[in-house]
Design goal:
The structure holds 3 protein chains of 3 kinds.
Chain A: H1 4-24, H2 29-53, E1 59-66, E2 69-74, H3 77-103, H4 109-128, H5 132-150, H6 156-188, H7 198-201, H8 206-219, H9 231-234, H10 240-249, H11 251-267, H12 269-274, H13 278-298, H14 302-323, H15 326-357, H16 373-387, H17 395-407, H18 412-428, H19 430-437, H20 451-469, H21 471-478
Antiparallel strand pairs in A: 1-2
Chain B: H1 2-8, H2 11-15, H3 17-34, H4 38-66, E1 69-72, E2 83-86, H5 88-115, H6 121-140, H7 144-163, H8 171-201, H9 206-216, H10 220-236, H11 245-252, H12 255-279, H13 287-313, H14 318-338, H15 342-372, H16 384-387, H17 389-403, H18 409-424, H19 427-453, H20 471-489, H21 492-506
Antiparallel strand pairs in B: 1-2
Helix pairs in contact in B: 1-4, 3-4, 3-6, 4-5, 4-6, 5-6, 5-12, 5-15, 5-20, 5-21, 6-7, 6-12, 7-8, 7-12, 8-10, 8-11, 10-12, 11-12, 11-14, 12-14, 12-15, 13-14, 13-19, 14-15, 14-19, 15-17, 15-18, 15-20, 15-21, 17-19, 17-20, 18-19, 18-20
Chain C: H1 2-8, H2 11-27, H3 31-53, H4 82-92, H5 128-158, H6 163-175
The chains are: A mainly alpha, B mainly alpha, C mainly alpha.
Chain lengths: 492, 509, 179
């Protein structure tokens, strides 16, 4: 239909124009919301096309800043997948936002929707980036564009949350990620993403590569590897659509996606296995997984509990990268997809509950299941996916990760994965259990939740179920990236 | 376009462009002084600035064609006569001074009318023209003593300009006095150095000195001269620890003066330092110069950037904060110089231009704020994002540029500087640059938080109306703010200019 | 040793003046005295340049009428005549460049290479530094003038010209209501 370059450019242009239009139409809310949704749908179509052509790796040079410094796009399956997740869930999230913002009568909605557009645009930029410089530029724009979303409420707590957000994310990116990017450029002559690993191809010594790996792991603060994680729970001051967005769609996924991309295309699994720091980092990821789950147990505020759950789940991807095994990398990529769909279900449910009851704590929500059955069923499905039980999608990443850990000789980290599943049960399931099995009179709804906040979580919950069965095509799609043969890993 | 302008210009002017660029502002200065009206004096300054810009363009074209231009004053050839010499290095600085001068002159009209008494305005503009001419003279001359003369010309005018800020803040007087004392000591040290060089070589022409030194080698006289020159010019360039005059001077001067000086004065001194180090002394042949790179410039640069950034974090007055930030940025340039490689020098020169753009925007924006509301403390910036959005946006863009966020020229500077440092393998210096960037994040974020996230205080019990600075303030400020972003996407002109300048100086002897 | 002192005795007062001037600048608390110190400092530099200009056995650099060679109008700051070239060359052909004592162009009497021109065998003192010093003196006077003008204004604004009092006055403004 149209050339690959145009498709790539459209991935940026659609949300950008959408944002501009939304800004102009601020005074007419219905038209404004329609623009957001239309932009979202157009973007989905565009990304679908990109997903098709990803294996031919089309490229696009956005800008040549100076000789040797270019902003480029290079499409490949991982990025296409992330873009698909992001754009698909943006539509769902936009529907939800409309319901939530109107249901709670929030202010400054135009600023809200414009920031969303810019944030999605930067997420697309991260997904499609062809070199580290481009990734870094869009990564920073993502941080800056989500700041107004985090501080949306404008009160003292929101400002404090925003301050911590910016300090940690900008601090790590300027303090660790930027020097790592420049060092890569210095060592390799460029920062392009290359199959097999740019640094591996340039014979960088394991010691130096090890240091760089650490800088990338902690410099990409959006991946919330402990101890860089505090920005996440503090960002819960934002309205729930933002939290859903931050924790499922754009920000954290951009973080772990970046780690995955760096691990695959800058280092390469072979080099990671050879580097001395990957094992300590794998352990740190393992500890993150367990520790964050334990902390989640102690939180009564539902959104905070879900925040720590996210930190734990994100470390799955970091662990996957640090194991240095292609099968684990596949697991990590799948985790991005499955966790996104699962977590957004959970967050949207939390927001729906808030809209209907103004409850924020789990202890308040006993017996609520009787009043909002569909919502609680959706929540349960999402929770089961996060826990990792078939037939929900989240089972697959766990499986591949366990296999990958075994292959890489780090069997002991499998314990972390299993422990995490058990802990997930402990902190995720009480809500639906108490919701359904406590008597209905314990609680009363202030008003019924609008359809627009119930429907999206139900849709994503159904998605989680469907994704379980889509493992075949997903695996085939990603196999070339990680140089896996059909016979490798878990046979289907 | 440059060719078009050059072809339209009468040949006589083209031939004498190197001297006219300095002479015209100097001649117009006394005329401006005797005119009774401030506005008329301003228009004379405008004419001078336009003319200088015109001359800069012509020189641009000439250097592009011929490589190096030499102009012998009065027909007396080197090494006897004073020679004005334009090559890729000072072309860059000339263009910078011309552009900034022009933008600042536009900025001057509303701000000076506001801050300075009407009867003193003609004298004020006259002093500005002298300073302008002096800075241009330092840049363009090829004679060592002539550098001293022009340095003093510009400095004396600067002392007067800074002191004019006493109308709003009497501390401008003591700041100017302290600057006078320190600046004179610095310039005198510099002239002692030049004297030693003259004793050792018998000539004052810089190119001639270079060839004689190359032939005859170095001895204690030339080494002593080097030390004196470095200290003298370093003081003018606000090299740590000789920077103590700068914070007070920039904080209390009129906003037009601060905006102009922050973008030009220290840059010119830095240029003069480079010119002496590379244009008179040959680092490859002089071991003590190489040692000075590592042990003086790099060390001073690193300590300066850390120390000054740290001090900036604790300031309460936004202008003093930015002044300390300027000292830190000079530290970056010193580090680039101290690396001793072409990449480092190119990075330093690139940062010279980029920092001028960034700081120019910041001080102009602060001045715009100050025009409508007095700005003494950071809390005075509260809520200005709502009341003066244009200036606030310009301030924000330049602020994040200072931190080094991508999409701005600050990022480009940091990129090239860190690459150059990595070439030398100085990991500690990379860490220092990163730490000072994080400190910059801290103090810029404080100001941005005040502007965007705080409520505007009520003045006289009424909420503040949204207001706009006059267009003469907004236009240059917005242009500079736009340049911050534009030259990120189109970095090549600035980057190649800096690289050519560095190559011209390091390689071409 | 004695030679060194006899040839370079002039540097002793120069250094004494220089250091005295600097010391006054640093140690005094009175602004006018500080300007005095500054002037002393600058004057010593003038002396230094002039000391360099002196050539033992040299006459004042004025060309006698009789020689029909190209005498310049001498108005040019860098001097004009070949003779000055002789003197500056003489300075630059410092044979003892390598010597540890450092080369003083003005004092290399015996090493004077009476360059070529027999008709101009006369030895001249170097006029160039004198011209440079005229400039420097003007600069010094201007600096002194600006400095004293500032002192007058400071007196008007603060009521004092003592450093301590001024610092106290400025500092209290800054600490009035710190964040």
């Amino acid at each position: 239909m149209y050339s690959p370059e145009v498709s790539l450019a459209l991935a940026l242009a659609i949300p950008a124009f959408g944002g501009a239009l939304v800004a102009l139409l601020g005074s007419r809310p219905n038209v404004r919301e329609a623009v957001t949704l239309i932009a979202g749908v157009l973007l989905v179509f565009n990304v679908a096309h990109l997903v098709e052509i990803a294996h031919s790796n089309p490229t696009l040079t956005l800008a040549t800043l100076a000789p040797g410094l270019e902003l480029t796009f290079k499409l490949e399956p991982l990025g296409a997948l992330f873009a698909a997740v992001a754009s698909g869930l943006w539509v769902v999230n936009s529907l939800y936002s409309i319901g939530y913002m109107r249901g709670n009568k929030e202010k400054n909605q135009t600023r809200f929707y414009v920031s969303f557009c810019i944030a999605i645009m930067s997420a697309m930029g991260v997904a499609l980036s062809g070199n580290l410089l481009t990734l870094f530029v869009f990564y920073e724009v993502l941080t800056l564009s989500t700041f107004p979303l985090v501080t949306h409420k404008g009160d003292a707590k929101a400002k404090r949350g925003g301050r911590i957000y910016l300090t940690i994310l900008l601090g790590t990116s300027i303090g660790l990620l930027l020097p790592a990017v420049i060092a890569t450029h210095f060592l390799a002559g460029s920062t392009d993403f290359v199959a097999g690993g740019l640094l591996a191809l340039n014979d960088v010594t394991p010691a130096i590569a090890g240091v760089l790996l650490v800088m990338f792991a902690f410099g990409i603060g959006k991946a919330a590897l402990m101890p860089i994680h505090p920005w996440l729970p503090n960002a819960m001051v934002a309205p729930t659509p933002v939290s859903a967005f931050l924790h499922a769609v754009a920000v954290v996924k951009a973080g772990v996606f970046s780690i995955l991309k760096v691990g695959t295309y800058i280092f390469g699994p072979a080099m990671i296995a050879a580097v001395p720091t990957s094992e300590p980092l794998a352990w740190i990821a393992g500890i993150s997984i367990v520790l964050a789950s334990v902390i989640a147990l102690t939180k009564d505020n539902l959104k905070e509990r879900l925040a720590f759950s996210t930190i734990s789940q994100l470390s799955y991807v970091t662990l996957a990268v640090m194991l240095g095994s292609p099968l684990a990398l596949l697991g990590g990529a799948l985790q991005i997809v499955m966790h996104a769909w699962g977590k957004i279900t959970l967050f949207m449910s939390a927001g729906a509950i808030y809209t209907a009851t103004k409850f924020t704590n789990v202890s308040q929500m006993r017996g609520l299941g009787h009043h909002m059955p569909w919502l609680f069923i959706a929540y349960t499905l999402g929770a089961l996916s996060i826990i990792g039980l078939p037939p929900l999608g989240g089972a697959w990443p766990k499986l591949f990760l366990i296999q990958g850990a075994w292959d890489a000789g780090h069997g002991i980290l499998i314990i972390a994965l299993i422990a995490s599943s058990l802990l997930n049960v402990a902190y995720l399931l009480p809500l639906p259990i108490k919701g359904f099995f406590e008597p209905a009179e314990t609680v009363a709804l202030k008003k019924p939740a609008p359809m627009m906040v119930i429907l999206p979580p139900v849709i994503t919950a159904a998605g989680v179920l469907i994704l379980f069965f889509l493992i075949g095509p997903l695996r085939d799609y990603l196999m070339p990236v990680f140089e896996l043969t059909p016979s490798a890993g878990v046979s289907l | 376009m440059i060719d078009l302008i050059a072809s339209l210009t009468p040949d006589a002017i083209v031939r004498h462009a190197p001297v006219l660029i300095v002479a015209l502002p100097l001649i117009l200065a006394p005329i401006a002084a005797i005119i009774p009206s401030g506005r008329a004096a301003w228009s004379i300054s405008l004419i001078a600035a336009l003319f200088v810009g015109w001359m800069a363009l012509i020189l641009f074209g000439q250097v592009a064609e011929h490589g190096v231009i030499e102009y012998a004053m009065g027909g007396w050839q080197a090494p006897l006569g004073i020679v004005y010499r334009v090559d890729a290095l000072n072309l860059q600085v000339l263009a910078l001074i011309g552009t900034i001068g022009l933008l600042c002159v536009f900025y001057a009209l509303p701000t000076v009318s506001d801050e300075i008494d009407g009867k003193q305005q003609p004298l004020f503009y006259s002093a500005f023209l002298i300073c302008f001419a002096g800075l241009l003279g330092v840049t363009i001359t090829g004679d060592a003593f002539n550098v001293f003369v022009f340095v003093e010309i510009s400095s004396l005018a600067t002392y007067a300009l800074i002191a004019m800020g006493a109308g709003k803040d009497r501390r401008a007087l003591t700041a100017s006095y302290n600057y006078l004392v320190l600046g004179t000591i610095g310039a005198t040290f510099f002239v002692i150095g030049v004297g030693f060089l003259y004793m050792a070589t018998g000539t004052l022409n810089m190119a001639d000195m270079a060839s004689i030194l190359a032939e005859n080698g170095h001895n204690r006289v030339t080494q002593a001269a080097f030390a004196f020159i470095v200290v003298g010019l370093g003081l003018k360039a606000a090299m740590f620890p000789l920077h103590v005059w700068l914070p007070n001077a920039y904080a209390t001067a009129p906003s037009f003066v601060t905006a102009f000086l922050a973008s030009t004065a220290t840059k010119v001194a830095f240029y003069a330092l480079i010119r002496f180090i590379y244009g008179v002394y040959h680092p490859e042949g002089a071991g003590f110069v190489m040692m000075a790179f590592t042990w003086v410039f790099a060390v001073v640069g690193v300590i300066g950037m850390l120390f000054a950034s740290l001090q900036a974090v604790f300031q309460t007055d936004p202008r003093r904060l930015l002044a300390y930030s300027s000292v830190a940025q000079v530290g970056y340039m010193m580090l680039g110089l101290g690396l001793g490689n072409v990449a480092g020098l190119a990075a330093a020169l690139l940062h010279l231009v980029n920092h001028a753009i960034m700081k120019g925007t910041l001080f102009m924006a602060l001045g715009a704020f100050g025009l409508k509301f007095g700005i003494r403390r950071i809390s005075d910036l509260n809520g200005l994002g709502r009341t003066m959005p244009a200036a606030a946006i310009a301030f924000t863009v330049a602020g994040i540029s200072l931190v080094g966020v991508p999409l701005t020229i600050g990022f480009t500077s940091k990129w090239y500087l860190i690459l150059a440092v990595l070439e030398r393998g100085w990991w500690w210096a990379v860490a220092a640059v990163i730490i000072s960037s994080l400190l910059a994040l801290a103090y810029i974020a404080r100001m941005l938080a005040a502007i965007w996230m705080e409520e505007a205080p009520k003045r006289d019990g009424k909420p503040v109306q949204s207001t706009r600075a006059p267009w003469m303030v907004l236009a240059p400020m917005s242009l500079l703010a736009f340049a911050n972003v534009y030259f990120f996407f189109n970095a090549d002109p600035l980057v190649s200019l800096a690289q050519r300048a560095a190559a011209a100086v390091m390689v071409g002897h | 040793m004695l030679e060194i002192i006899s040839e370079r005795f002039v540097y002793i007062p120069i250094i004494i003046l220089m250091m005295t001037g600097l010391y006054v600048v640093i140690s005094t608390g009175n602004l006018v005295k500080r300007m005095v110190g500054l002037s002393l400092f600058q004057t010593s530099v003038c002396l230094m340049y002039i000391a360099v200009a002196k050539v033992f056995g040299g006459t004042p650099p004025i060309l006698p009428e009789a020689h029909g060679d190209t005498a310049s109008d001498g108005s040019d700051h860098s001097g004009g005549a070949d003779h000055t070239v002789v003197q500056t060359d003489h300075g630059s052909q410092i044979v003892e460049m390598a010597s540890d004592h450092g080369a003083d162009s003005g004092h290399g009497t015996e090493a004077v290479s009476h360059v070529a021109d027999a008709a101009h065998a006369a030895l001249y003192s170097n006029p160039l530094p004198h011209v440079l010093i005229l400039t420097a003196i003007v600069v010094g006077v201007a600096t002194l003038a600006v400095g004293l003008a500032l002192v007058v204004r400071i007196r008007e604004a603060y009521g004092t010209i003592e450093d301590d009092a001024l610092n106290a006055a400025d500092y209290s403004v800054e600490t009035g209501g710190t964040e």
